Amino acid sequence: MDLVRRPMDASLLEEGKILIWTTALDSVGDVRLGQLASLLSPDENQRAIRLRFERDRRRFIVCRGVLREILGTYLEMDPAKLVFSYGPQGKPYLKIPNERPLHFNVAHSLGWAIYALGFGEIGVDLELMRPIPEMQALVDQCFSAGEVSAFYSIPAALRLRAFFSCWTRKEAYVKACGDGLSIPLDQFDVSVDPGLPPRLVSVRGTPGAHLPWTLFSFDL
Fold first, then answer.
1. What superfamily in CATH does domain 10-118 come from?
2. CA proximity to 168, closest of 216, 125, 134
3. Tens of pLDDT, residues 160-192
4. What share of the chain has pLDDT > 90, as a percent?
5. What residue ranges do the domains of the chain occupy?
6. How far apart, in whole angstroms, are the C-alpha atoms of residue 49 and residue 25?
7. Fewer CB within 10 Å: C terminus or N terminus of the chain?
8. Angle, in degrees to the nearest 10, between helices 145-152 and 135-142
9. Max Cα–Cα distance, the chain, nearest Å
10. Which of 132, 133, 149 is nearest to 186 (CA)?
11. Is 157 helix (H, G, I), strand (E, B) or coil?
12. What does pTM read for this prediction?
C-alpha cells in the first residue's frame, strides 16, 4: 500500500467508497498531544488517566484525538463536540442524526493506528507481523475446519504471513458485524493464502451473514 500525505478532503467521501487513514501514535510531541487531548470528552480523558503506563496513555489520546479530527472534517463538525454511543460489544458509533450515517472503525497495533470510514457497516484490523509461539494452537482452536486445512497446505515458510492474513480478515469481519469476539471465529471462513485475493469464503449463522461483504487486505 502506498501512503501519501495530503489534507483531508470531505468531497472524497462518497457512496461505495472506503477511505483509509493511518497515524503513527508515537511520533507526536507534547504540544500536539495537548491539542488532541483537548478534543476528548471527559470520559475519554478519564479512560486515558486510568491507563497505567504513560506510553499507553499517549497512544490512546493520539488515537482517539485523530479519530475525532478525521470524523469532524468529513462531517464538517467540531471534533470536540462529537458524541459516541456504543453497541452491546463496545463498537463505537456516532450519536448524531444523519440520513446517511457515516460508519467508521479503528484498529491499532503497537505504535500504529488505522481508521476506516464509509457509508456502510465496516470493520478493520491491524497486526504487527511477528513470531507467535502459540500460533499453531490458535490456528487449531480459532480457525474453521476449512481454514485449518488451507493453512497447513501452505509451505511452512509462508505460514506466519498466512496466519496474520487469516487472523486480520476474521477480526475485521466480526468487528464489522459489531459483535466482536462474541462471534465464534470458527463459524465462518475467509481465504488464508496471502498470495491470493482476499475473500469471505462462507458465512454461517453470524449477524452479518445476509450482507454483501467485500474484503480487502493490504500492508502498511
1. 4'-phosphopantetheinyl transferase domain (3.90.470.20)
2. 125
3. 999 999 999 999 999 998 876 678 888 889 999
4. 61
5. 10-118, 135-203
6. 17
7. N
8. 140
9. 51
10. 149
11. helix
12. 0.86
Backbone angles phi, psi at 80, to 5 degrees: -70, -15
**Which residue, among 89, 93, 29, has the nearest Cα to 61 in the 3D structure?**
29
Cβ–Cβ under 8 Å, residues 96 and 75: yes
Which pLDDT score is estimated for 3? 32
Ramachandran region, residue 175 (left: φ > 0; alpha: ψ -120 to 50; beta: rest)? alpha
Provide the grid cell at 181. Answer: 469476539
Please list the alpha-helical segments (H only) found in the chain. 30-37, 42-50, 54-75, 135-142, 145-152, 159-177
170's grid cell: 476474521
148, three cell numbers: 485449518
Kindly state the DSSP code that residue 67 receives in the 8-state scheme: H
Residue length of the chain? 220
pLDDT in tens, 203-214: 876 666 667 888
Residue partners of 175: CB distance under 8 A and separation at least 6: 91, 105, 107, 123, 124, 125
Which residues does 200 contact at the CB level (< 8 Å), separation at least 6? Answer: 173, 188, 189, 190, 213, 215
Count of beta carbons in the 10 Å neighbourhood of residue 99: 4
Coil vs helix vs strand at 24? strand
Backbone angles phi, psi at 92, to 5 degrees: -80, 145
> Contacts from 152-156 at CB under 8 Å and sequence distance 24+?
154/192, 154/193
